[in-house]
Write a structure and sequence with these properties.
homodimer; alpha+beta; Pnp Oxidase, Chain A; seven-stranded antiparallel sheet; four-stranded antiparallel sheet; globular; Flavin-nucleotide-binding protein (chains A, B); Split_barrel_FMN-bd (chains A, B); Pyridox_Oxase-rel (chains A, B)
């Protein structure tokens, strides 16, 4: 049995409830497939939304950035919203009004907190690296003391979250389907990796390492 | 000469100014290539970030949704933040700490306003359709009166905006480049359209229309 999400009033969807997924595995699937999130904070009373990297370990989401980045300083101990969206297709319907998008999205609300314990902070950095560039933690040089001090890691509990998806063809009324006056269907949208581009200043004739060459997107559509 | 962006204190970047683009054509290029935006609003004092469609005409951004959607009702006349992010690659550096992402992003701040004038609202719907599904305005059934009443269109002026990008290889210190202990380079990330999937309930044996079959992503990287 999947663990249910525990939505509060804030994360209970008001509309199109049929599109809401309520198990935690769907939340994790979206977060594990996404590459970036959009972090929302309130600054001077207005919303600010910035793209940033993240990583997930169990029920914890990690975010990172330079300690000099205002968005990170502003996020410690305050309410944030983290949204990850995977766009899966453009839905062409018989009528302009019924056009839509297929997507999966996760919205997480909570108080972000700076991770200060050194062991847990290093663990957070590893989770972030494993998400951004799986295999790099083993391949590339470790984080040194100066770098460790200059980076901040935030954690956010995944308890208050909602997941939505649309993953089907156009939803036209029967009479318009029968009239057959327009083409209808879905144009899939995919995120793919291209051919690795080695840095021009590599000294040796490196082969592209397997963790880069064979990288695939992690996620799978929930059943 | 490109028209410069006119950033306010809120949209002037505090860090990595070298990554900020200051001409309006770069803003338009990001907006025209993106398919979805992330809309940030403040609700009950906390940020809420939701993915949604948009369209641009000149210096105006249009957003739409059902009049029943709380995020749309909440956005009329209030400060919003709209962010569009195009992820272009994962940057593998010699050290874990220097890993990064190549991206282009636009952040727009301003007061969204509901478009109530019928002609301008219909124009906004056309702009939104032309962005989501170019060619569908000509191909699919027009918006009828009932649909027109049930949809809301918001407009947002693009004056207060910032554009950021990173589009290069890893930025490692010289001694680490010379040591050549790790592979370094960029794994490109691309958004692509798949093969169109005709709706199973089409009556005729339709050929996929050219506006769907030949659709390409609009954008080009700014020089």
């Amino acid at each position: 049995m999947p663990t249910p999400l525990s939505p509060t009033d804030r994360t209970t969807l008001n509309r199109k409830k049929n599109r809401a997924l309520t198990d935690r595995s769907a939340l994790y699937a979206v977060l594990d497939e996404g590459l970036i999130c959009h972090l929302g904070v309130v600054r001077d009373g207005v919303p600010l939304v910035i793209p940033t990297g993240y990583g997930r370990d169990g029920n914890t989401l990690y975010l990172h950035g330079s300690t000099g980045a205002r968005s990170m300083r502003d996020s410690d101990g305050v309410e944030v919203c983290v949204t990850v969206t995977l766009l899966d297709g453009v839905v062409y319907a018989r009528s302009v009004n019924n056009h839509s998008m297929n997507y999966r999205s996760a919205v997480i609300l909570g108080k972000a907190a700076a991770v200060t314990d050194p062991d847990r902070k290093m663990h957070g950095l590893r989770v972030l690296t494993d998400h951004l560039a799986p295999g790099s933690w083993e391949h590339a040089r470790d984080v040194n003391a100066k770098e460790f001090a200059s980076v901040s890691v935030l954690e956010l509990d995944l308890t208050e979250a909602s997941v939505k998806m649309r993953g089907e063809g156009p939803d036209d009324p029967e009479d318009e389907v029968a009239a057959d006056l327009s083409w209808a269907g879905v144009l899939p949208v995919r995120t793919v990796f291209g051919e690795p581009e080695p840095s021009k200043d590599l000294v040796r004739a490196w082969e592209v390492p397997a963790h880069v060459r064979d990288r695939e997107l992690k996620g799978t559509l929930p059943a």
